[in-house]
């Protein structure tokens, strides 16, 4: 495939009047308009913006399927649906449930084999090692203390495909789990946590840190205790952010963008199985969630994941912050690829996978290309 008349966006620059040549699922060459190679399959991008496909590192489900179901339907549905929403890679994300259900969900991962569509890159284990005080929609009945032995079992079930573990470090005696995760190249992410700033500074001494869905499910900022939210500003963690305007208001999204910056922010959906579905009541994590007007809530009123898509998050981020397209690349793909040590994606560059999304001037998704094949959005 030859993509002509395209504006290429990288994390560093915008290249106007360019072309991208794709062969064998990868980007073979890039150049300026006028010296294009010949190709029978030509796609005229009409000078719209080409970005790397988004990598969603925190997504529980979509279009009626749930990561906790532990069956192949999850992977097949996610692969088919996510490119329509601008996502080309993702981490299957679990939640706090009974250990048997978590084990079943994790065990399904080892049999995964990529075929087409969005690729599942591994697992984000959210819970059960969290703090009940900030449980949000996580089921309090199944919250337990961090347990290295259990974590080893989880790793074996997935054949070492766990990439991120969300946990509450204040519950982690001597930071034993955090140390184990670092030793095994797994990202320890602070979430659903009441940790103090001092605890997080101690955690930071072990290596790079990470925060799960910033502002949500964490100790907030106080003038005598910066808390988890304060650590996001004052430390150097990578920071997940849900940009639906519901979990975090548009003004606080702008606050995070201004004071944390696109170099550390990562847009996530935290989407639950009702993403892409009509208003109604849906099961999620052993509980009932009511979806109404774009908000997914437990009957208690607590937010229960989101139904926002990456393409909507990008449009919101542009509107809320007036950020650049280069910033969008950082927050949706480049930062994620570096954080997960992915050398084959996250950039539009020669030798990278041809996972490309096309947006117009209004930040509306026009097309998705996964490994060189076009997937028109619904």
TrEMBL record:
Pathway: Amino-sugar metabolism; N-acetylneuraminate degradation; D-fructose 6-phosphate from N-acetylneuraminate: step 4/5
Keywords: Carbohydrate metabolism, Hydrolase, Metal-binding
Reactions mediated catalytically: N-acetyl-D-glucosamine 6-phosphate + H2O = D-glucosamine 6-phosphate + acetate
GO biological process, one term: N-acetylglucosamine catabolic process
The enzyme's E.C. designation: 3.5.1.25
Cofactor: a divalent metal cation
Ligand binding (Zn(2+)): 126, 192, 213
Gene Ontology molecular function, alphabetical: metal ion binding; N-acetylglucosamine-6-phosphate deacetylase activity
Transmembrane segments annotated in the record for this chain: none
Top-level lineage group: Bacteria
Active site positions: 270
InterPro entries: Amidohydro-rel (IPR006680), GlcNAc_6-P_deAcase (IPR003764), Metal-dep_hydrolase_composite (IPR011059), Metal_Hydrolase (IPR032466)
Residue span(s) of domain Amidohydrolase-related: 49-374
Cofactor binding description: Binds 1 divalent metal cation per subunit.
Primary enzyme class: hydrolase
Entry binding sites for substrate: 137, 216-217, 224, 247, 303-305
Recorded family membership: Belongs to the metallo-dependent hydrolases superfamily. NagA family.
NCBIfam families, per the entry: nagA (TIGR00221)
Protein name: N-acetylglucosamine-6-phosphate deacetylase
Natural source organism: Aliicoccus persicus
